[in-house]
Amino acid sequence: MYTQTTSGKASKGSCGVESFQGRLRLRLPRSLYGGKQKYLVLGMADTPENRKAAEVKARQIELDILSDNFDSTLAKYKPQTHLTVVEKPKPAVDLLVHQLWKEYLAYKASALKPTSIDFLEKCLGRHLYKCEANPNNALEVRQWLLARTTESMTKRCLTHLCAAYDWAMKHTDEKEWRLLTSNPYKGLANELAHKYEVSSEPNAFLPEEKEKILKAYYTSSLQGQNYRHYAEFVEFLFLTGCRPSEAIGLQWKHIARDCSRITFEGAIVGLRGGSHVRVSKSKTNRVRKFNCGKRLQELLTTMSEKSEHEPESLVFSSPRSKSPINYNNFCKRAWHKVVDPIVNRPTTPYSCRDTFISEQVAKGISSDIVAKWCDNSPEEIRKKYLDNKLLEHLRPLD
Q1: pLDDT, tens digit, for every residue of 144-155?
Q2: What predicted TM-score, i.e. pTM, was given to this entire model?
Q3: For residue 245, what is the DSSP state?
């Protein structure tokens, strides 16, 4: 469809407004282009409002022709198309501690071990999911935790909240949280201390205590309960200094055929609720080789010859099945009933680890070597595990 809007004969140098196929365009004077007809397409629908705008543009062109300011490239007269739709920004919202913790765990779930998730979800989460405070007020959160749990647990919560806040700050625009520009939890946990940091003495057994404990397990029969089943397990802890969870998860495929070497590359750990899970590598994400001493090699050889076993079979299992030893049940039923009457002080199977480390250092093995055997740092060996009760029996060499 073509409609000319000008009436009568157009004067020389005039610019007309036309409608072509329902869209408006300007008819430019022929004199500008050597008698050839040119048009400027406006890209606007033919409506009364748009016609008024087109007529203003036509008058502007006519004035520019008269004043010798006409832009032959037509760029000056083309419609402006740089329009951007701007959405109204959503207002930022306040975030609560329990919401932050939930979002953070969902983000971290795929990167952490099941035991770590279990600890963060059930142990720390038991407190943080109840906290309705704004995480921006770190001191208020600190006081809220201290009023409801121990200093050690508060320290753990604040340490992980610091990491969660760092993560949240990176996702503020995406999540539209109202957070501070700096992390208020930085260094806050350093003001508190774990119990072992205040009193970090290890709890090793003296040689005579160790001998009595092993004898008790190998001959034990208390109140109708025979704890002889755990004798090799306890002696293994004394001879390796490994973590109980590493011994519980040990399989025969991890032991050399001649029982001269052990590869510690995982563990079985209990989760809150009674279930257990196998984790790869150690607590510090390492795999380590452990060369067996004479007594340890004899122990493993004897166990290997007792019964047939598959490579995937557990070296130590529960008394009534081939399932893993339940560490908590072992401590409550077998450890405390046998060990407590002998030493008359609170201990755990980790005291076997303390004993091994203290004995090796007392024998002259360097802390660096013992640290590699036990998957720890030399500094931690000296600070946390070296038991002066054993060292005080030594005398300087003449």
Answers
A1: 999 998 888 999
A2: 0.58
A3: H
